[in-house]
Design goal:
Blueprint: E1 2-7, E2 11-18, E3 21-29, H1 34-41, E4 49-53, E5 69-71, H2 74-85, E6 91-95, E7 100-105, E8 116-122, H3 130-139, H4 144-151, H5 165-177, H6 182-204, E9 210-213, H7 220-230, E10 238-239, H8 247-261
Parallel strand pairs: 1-4, 4-5, 6-9, 9-10
Antiparallel strand pairs: 1-2, 2-3, 6-7, 7-8
Length: about 280
């Protein structure tokens, strides 16, 4: 069994592969003790190899597993996970809890995925990330899981000039005080995120099809606006895994599988096990 562990700022994901298939896919929110959380996710597993990725990837050294350990960058993990699920991918966009990654891929050939040729990563602040959405959703007293659907009810969105989380909150509060419908303000906040994201994609020279990973890929407003900005079709030009936030852990597991056995998993477009949160 090979295990990939994506230790992020907002959540930890685990994917285990064995005998040519995914046998476990688990997720837990990150707390102040990620090592204990990782140990809990690994309970009952006896990995032959474990590969870590994400902000906390070096924490795998503290798990005391007694098996070979290694780590890979988030860029490599998301590229491997995304292109395993969609071999035709030419770009990857990952919007997670604390950063955004735009990755351009060379064209694949003979059924093989393309390699990373250029990437850009915004990890210096929470602007345009899941944390930004979570924080601004709190201004509207709406659960972040419902924020995208709420924003889609808006129309004629105001322009949000600042992507700083604190300043964006101030702008939103000021717009509310002036009588702007809150749904429209929420739509404006989503448009600001997408505009920033599209600029990042442009700087890396993205091409379609694009695989959208990370928890924010579950936000229907971000997805709708992204497709509109890129003049792209969802499902053909923009591809979303069944569980977009598991792509990094899947990529880490694939890296471990290739490193240990020299083989890959059979290609499919789904992570079979249901995720236990």
């Amino acid at each position: 069994m090979i295990v990939g562990l994506d230790i992020g700022s907002r959540s930890i994901e685990l994917v285990a592969v064995q005998n040519g298939e995914v046998v476990r896919a688990l997720r837990a929110p990150t707390t102040f003790d990620p090592v204990s959380q990782c140990a809990g996710l690994l309970e009952g597993l006896r990995p032959a190899s474990l590969v870590g990725t994400g902000y906390g990837r070096n924490l795998i050294q503290c798990l005391g597993l007694g098996c070979p350990l290694s780590s890979i960058t988030e860029i490599k993990a998301h590229a491997m996970g995304a292109t395993h699920l969609f071999a035709q991918a030419r770009s990857v966009l990952d919007i997670g809890g604390q950063d955004t990654k735009a990755i351009a891929l060379a064209p694949g050939h003979e059924g093989q995925p393309g390699r990373v040729v250029k990437f850009e990563m915004n990890d210096r602040c929470a602007a345009g990330t899941g944390k930004f959405l979570e924080y601004t959703a709190g201004v509207f007293q709406i659960p972040v899981e419902m924020f995208g659907a709420y924003a889609l009810k808006g129309s004629d969105p105001p322009e949000i000039s600042s992507m700083c989380t604190v300043f964006a909150e101030t702008e939103a509060t000021s717009l509310m005080a002036r009588g702007t419908p809150p749904e429209s303000i929420a739509l404006g906040l989503h448009k600001a995120i997408v505009k920033r994201t599209v600029n990042m994609l442009g700087r890396v020279g993205f091409a379609l099809p694009l695989v959208f990973t990370g928890g924010v890929a579950n936000n229907p407003c971000v997805l709708t606006l992204l497709a509109r900005e890129l003049k792209a079709e969802i499902g053909t030009d923009i591809l979303i895994p069944d569980q977009p936030d598991m792509a990094g852990a899947l990529g880490a597991a694939l890296a471990g599988l290739v490193g240990l056995t020299g083989t890959d998993l059979p290609r499919h477009s789904s992570l079979a096990p249901r995720v236990n949160s």
